[in-house]
Amino acid sequence: MKPIQVGLLGIGVVGSGTFNVLLRNQEEIKRRAGRGIQITMVADLNVARARELVGPGVAVVNDARAVIANPDIDIVIELIGGYGVAKTLVLEAIAAGKHVVTANKALLAVHGTEIFAAASAKGVMVAFEAAVAGGIPIIKALREGLTANRIQWIAGIINGTTNFILSEMRDKGLDFAVALKQAQALGYAEADPTFDIEGIDAAHKATIMSAIAFGIPVQFDKAYVEGITKLGAADIKYAEQLGYRIKLLGITKRTPKGIELRVHPCLIPAKRLIANVEGAMNAVVVQGDAVGTTLYYGKGAGSEPTASAVIADLVDITRLHTADPAQRVPHLAFQPNAMSDLPVMPMGEVVTSYYLRLRVADETGVLAKVTGILADADISIDAVLQREADEITTEVAAGQAQAQVPQTDVIILTHDCLEADMNAAIAKMQALPSVLEPITRIRKEELA
């Protein structure tokens, strides 16, 4: 049988890895797919570099539309990234009757509803295993392997850059800024790391997993997103003393009120497997009613790990290329006419527990005032940790002499409460004259 022909848009880190792995393992892949899979055309602005990477026998152009227009191309791989031209090209490829493979989580998290609808109308597939957690086959697990289950919740370390930074902060006692510079020097963080450290990248991925798990439209605009930039080495240390580790998690849960969709730092019990995922690795925990807890672990980025997922999608499409579109696995696991209208809940309606760190004046009655505010809000306390006082030099007033003011950190762990109630309590505690710095609040997830 004639090999299926693939056009590649963008031959950067993942694109070159995809080309190389497909070439290296072509016989093994052919045995699995039932026919050969060949990248026969590549579009890249740097034509000379692309030609050097692919060698003779592959057409190289600088215009992606030339690939889409080629009638011999069956599948288009989009590895350009971003929301702009990538969206246009994906929709044009679909309109031309091409199947699409993409690693573009940002595109799908924001415009997935439109793209999947266009693909369904045209009878083509959009495959995106590489969009979440690199080489970990989490999309396939959620969409197919766990299809018998009513998924209850998902929690994942789905950004390797932030996990590397948090691991360095814990292992070496570094502050965030120092750990970030180290991550940049080692190539784990971009020169502009905003998407990673502010949680946006993880939120794109969590949005996609949430849609597949619960059969809801992709709704990135409703996700709660908080990064790791405000974490200090002290918080990492205190968490450790209390038996927890801090990780940036993407969390989505089914609740009676709707779906939780949130990304933020979390305290996780150190005994949990996911709490021990270190460095730039990724891990996703999925809780299903039938299967219980399952864990998926591996490399979440990199040339060949991500290429592994891209090629798995190519094989899937090759196998189903001639199948009746109605018999294929739906893009978001559920049939398009059976999607749920469950709302994504505002963060204020989420119930969870908390770690609070307050830098306070070391004077009589401070702890009583703080715990009184929590009690008035009906927030119960699980544990309290108070450090010995530090002698901190502060200016009493402009133009006056400096004075030694004893200060201390008070650490409080709470039981579950409503986020809106905690927000109100923090505002009242922050207004106390004896609370000297902004209160650090980190949510706590037992993942039990």
Characterization of the model:
- It is a single chain.
- By secondary structure, the chain is an alpha/beta fold.
- It has three domains: 4-136 and 304-338, NAD(P)-binding Rossmann-like Domain (Rossmann fold); 138-299, Dihydrodipicolinate Reductase, domain 2; 348-444, Alpha-Beta Plaits (2-Layer Sandwich).
- The chain contains 15 helices and 18 strands.
- Strands 7, 8, 9, 10, 11, 12, 13, 14, 15, 16, 17 and 18 form a twelve-stranded mixed β-sheet that branches. A six-stranded parallel β-sheet has the order 3-2-1-4-5-6, with helices on both faces.
- Helix 1 crosses helix 13, helix 8 (160-172) packs across helix 9 (176-185) and helix 14 (366-376) packs antiparallel against helix 15 (419-430).
- The longest helix has 18 residues, at 105-122.
Sheet bearing the most strands, described? Answer: 12 strands, mixed
Q: Using only CA atoms, what is the Rg?
A: 25 Å
Just name the CATH architecture of the largest domain: 3-Layer(aba) Sandwich
- What is the β-strand count? 18
How many domains make up the coordinates? 3
Task: Classify the helix fraction into a percent range.
Answer: 25-40%
* Strand portion: 25-35%
What shape does the CA trace take?
Answer: elongated
* Average pLDDT figure: 95
Supply the helix-strand structural class: alpha/beta
Structure in a nutshell:
The protein is of the alpha/beta class and 448 residues long.
Throw out a few tags for this protein.
448 residues, alpha/beta, Dihydrodipicolinate Reductase, domain 2, Alpha-Beta Plaits, 12-stranded mixed beta sheet, 6-stranded parallel beta sheet, 15 helices, elongated
